[in-house]
Amino acid sequence: MQGIGIENYGERPHLIDVPLPDPGTGEIEVELYAASRNPLDEAVAAGYLAGLGEFRFPLILGFDGAGVVRRLGGGVSEFAAGDRVFGQFWGVPMQFGTFAEATLVQARPALGALRRIPDSVGFEHAAAAPTAAMTAAGALDTSGAKPGDTILILGATGGVGTFAVQEAKARGIRVIAPAHREVSDALRELGVDEVLPSDGALGDALVGLGAIEFAAVLDFAGAADIVEVAAEGVRDGGTVVSTAYGVPDSLRSQNRIVGLDYVLDEKPARLDHLADSLAAGTVRPVITHEIGLEDAARGVAPVNGGLRGKTVIRLR
Ligand SMILES: NC(=O)c1ccc[n+]([C@@H]2O[C@H](COP(=O)([O-])OP(=O)(O)OC[C@H]3O[C@@H](n4cnc5c(N)ncnc54)[C@H](OP(=O)(O)O)[C@@H]3O)[C@@H](O)[C@H]2O)c1
Fold first, then answer.
1. CATH number for the domain harbouring residue 45
2. Are residues 14 and 103 in the same domain?
3. Is residue 293 part of a domain?
4. What pLDDT is attached to residue 181?
């Protein structure tokens, strides 16, 4: 079976051939139709997550995917052959990721989550969403923002950010986001209520908002200097939540607002919520690139003048 992976940490991901074993107890074999990339994949290839779970080599990369259950090991009651499934395919041990023709994973992956794909949702949308959309919803939950509140999103153009904008709007939360001028229209179409300048003028633009105070800043970009400026617009007792370790030390050492790192948690429940949201159309992946398996090892630039969104790998 062919997939994109590595034989050792630090290698450039490349096309490798690796046999897929028969499904063991509790495992399912899934024929993959689509996968999607996340910054997490690069972190795994670099060895930064070596202490999390157990990675075996040769390691096929990729956590997010969607496909059809082909074979079941003993004791699997969650799925049947022929089921369309999606989610974060993160088992322990982890060897057969989603950047491949097929994968072998625990039906209940120890560090991920899998669900049936709602009938109305296609493989590519299902594959594009799991990690980014679950992270967006989790960060929003952690922020404590409520309907009627206003939040500021940093990194609204990216995978997590494009879902966070939609998730916030679905919850009746007003969204403000700094961004380059060329993506302003695309962000407004996505649901952002007000787009601010993203360069050195952000501080002035925040002052220009006058009485508006943010219940929270959600940071998906990881630039601590920008987070520090944005945090000045947060109301007393509000939050700054970062998935990209962007909370500056200055925020950790004061008591006016709360600065938190968020790591994706409660994956099975969050995947249930995502399946409902995709079926209802309250969130829809922003897919900006569709590439083949051979191209999955290479980086892709944002579409000129467009959002970064998600890159989907077509596998069928
Ligand atoms: N903690 C967790 O459990 C968890 C889960 C998922 C993701 N993450 C992390 O969350 C972050 C976002 O993930 P993602 O999938 O959305 O990544 P992504 O698709 O690459 O998006 C990154 C976003 O950050 C912006 N950005 C990057 N560097 C910036 C800078 N120096 N100044 C301003 N904006 C900058 C990008 O803007 P442009 O489009 O303009 O470049 C884009 O909006 C990543 O750091 C990822 O590792 C963490």
1. 3.90.180.10
2. yes
3. yes
4. 93
CA 215 remoteness from chain centre: 23
Residue nearest to atom 20 of ligand 1 (CA): 158
- 158 pocket-lining for ligand 1 (C-beta < 6 Å): yes
Q: Is the CB of 132 under 6 A from ligand 1?
A: yes
Assess whether the C-beta atom of 223 lies below 6 angstroms from ligand 1.
yes
Please give the helix or strand (H or E) that residue 30 lies within, else none: strand 27-36
Domain count, the chain: 2
How much is the pLDDT for 298?
77
Q: Is 306 in the pocket of ligand 1 (CB under 6 A)?
A: no
- Domain-located, residue 222: yes
pLDDT tens readout for residues 233-275:
999 999 999 999 999 999 999 999 999 999 999 999 999 999 9
The domain spanning residue 139 has which CATH number?
3.40.50.720
CA of 75 to the centre of ligand 1 (A): 39
pLDDT at position 302 is 62
Other CB atoms within a 10 A radius of the CB of residue 191 amount to 18
pLDDT for res 212: 86
With a 6 Å cutoff on the Cβ, whether 38 touches ligand 1 is yes
Distance (Å, rounded) from C-alpha 11 to C-alpha 14?
8
Is beta strand 150-154 parallel, antiparallel or unpaired with respect to 174-178?
A: parallel
- Say which residue the tokens 């787009």 belong to: 195
Q: In this structure, which residue's CA is closest to atom 35 in ligand 1?
A: 221
Residue 32 domain boundaries: 2-129+285-314
Q: In the chain, which residue ranges form alpha helices assigned H by DSSP?
A: 39-46, 123-128, 130-143, 159-170, 184-190, 202-208, 224-231, 249-252, 267-280
Task: Determine whether the shortest distance from the Cβ of 58 to ligand 1 is under 6 A.
Answer: no
Helix/strand/coil percentages in the chain, nearest 5? 30, 30, 40
19: in domain = yes
- Predicted pLDDT at 301: 66
For residues 220, 224, 225, 230, the Cα torsion angle rounded to the nearest 10 degrees is 50
Q: Which portions of the chain are predicted below pLDDT 50?
A: none
